[in-house]
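Notes from hallway chat w/ T.B., transcribed later so I don't forget. T.B. wanted the structure written out for a chain they're using in a teaching module, and asked if we could keep both sequence and structure tokens in one place. Agreed to drop them here.
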Amino acid sequence: MQAVKQHWWKILGVLLLIYVIVGGLLFEVPDLPVIRQSIRNIYFHVGMWFGMIFILFAGMVFSVRYLLTNRPYEDMKALAAVKTGLLFGVLGLITGMVWAQFTWGSFWVNDPKLNGAVVGVLIYCAYIVLRSSVEDRDKRARLAAVYNVFAFVLFFVFIMIVPRTAAHSIHPGVDGNPALATGDLAPEMRIVFYPAIAGWFIMTWWLYTLLFRAGKLEAGIDECIENLNEIKNG
């Protein structure tokens, strides 16, 4: 019973996503021109991207906190958040490409929304590369924190602002998010879509906590190895 109280939110996340998978595949959806049954992908593609944006924003907050406090754990949290965001970003790109194949006849089209999404993911890939290129721990953490703050700003610009200023985009949501706009999402889809957003948010945070704990364990092991080497050399 104690375990249930402690991990209730994880259980909730699993139950929500089970419901979303079943409802997404079996519940009724509007039979719209062009997209047809592929509209069911909205529960997965959009939900994953919402989770990605949520955790990348959290990562930016952790980086700001590191710059203010110099606490190593805040840097570890930021790294775990970025890794989680990248995973969901890649999954979002894959589900988007599958959806594009069914609706546009191609896995990729030259569209500002799609191109901006890829650029945004690459910006965060550069964050990982930056960390691996600096050996000094404190310098690496500070450079990564500064970069992470600007990375989120640029990411937001490329996925939200640039597509809206482009002359043409065939991707839905250029003038707003059709999944959240009143009247755009069919009532029968809302009973699955909103639980999907909640479920993906929970699963995103759960994965982040796992990566953060793994990062702390790795840091502890590295510190023990350094101490042993100092004892041997001393």
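Follow-up for T.B.: The mean pLDDT is 87. Might be a good example for the class.
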